[in-house]
Amino acid sequence: MASVIPVIFILAVVLGLIACGYLFVPKGPHQTTIRTAIMLTLASCYLMWMVTYMAQLHPLISKS
Asked: What is its main location (predicted)?
């Protein structure tokens, strides 16, 4: 159960950053593009971190 706590904590941090990115992007002709880029970047970084973290906790090949 201890391996789930960092994943959920980092998820909450990333969701907070996504919300800040959505709310604080200045208005302009490229506002939607900038918002989308920020959200996709943060989501991709989180997914890559989570997959790497979980792979280290539960390796497919264990050392005997």
From this structure: membrane
